[in-house]
Amino acid sequence: MRILVAGIGNMFLGDDGFGVEVARRLSGQTLGEHIDVVDFGIRGIHLAFELSGGRYDAAVLVDAVSRGGAPGTVYVIEPDVGGEACDPSAADAHSLTPDAVLAWIRQVGGTRPRVVVVGCEPETTAESMELSAPVAAAIDQAMQTIRDLVGEMSGVTPCA
């Protein structure tokens, strides 16, 4: 099984860089033979093309996700298959959320793999290259959650 772990976010907007930092740290670990860890940052269209090409059986998207919890709360979300409407011709490559990426794939007729989002509740997305203390403290938990998901998806438990 081929799995993509995709870090998403803007590292110049504080906690929005959560996914980017998690991907950076995970890239130095062995998650498995067919597991790719990629920092997509704000390249949502690139991520959509990677996910729609049939190359991956599953994907774990890692991003800051506002759901109303305490800053630093880690969520595991299985996105709704329906998703939001998206006009592919009007897609802004710098602002595609995970939901919009999945909707874009559906709109253009791509094949979507199983997708799970590992999100973290941000404290701030103000201009900064630093994660807030609660979000920085959640990185280890998110990394373990991703290792567990990859193990569940692939049947092979990755080493830390």
Describe the structure in brief.
With about 160 residues, the chain is α/β, with parallel strands linked by helices.
Question: What does this protein structure show overall?
Answer:
The protein is of the alpha/beta class and 160 residues long. It is built from five helices and five strands, in the order E-H-E-H-E-E-H-E-H-H. It has a five-stranded mixed sheet with strand order 2-1-3-5-4, sandwiched between helices. Strand 1 (3-8), helix 1 and strand 2 (35-41) form a beta-alpha-beta unit. Helix 2 crosses helix 3 (98-107).
Short key terms for the protein model shown above:
alpha/beta, 5-stranded mixed β-sheet, 5 helices, 31% helix
The SSE string, one letter per element, is: EHEHEEHEHH
Number of separate structural domains = 1
Q: Work out the radius of gyration.
A: 15 Å
- Biggest sheet descriptor: 5 strands, mixed
Strand content: 15-25%
CATH topology: Rossmann fold
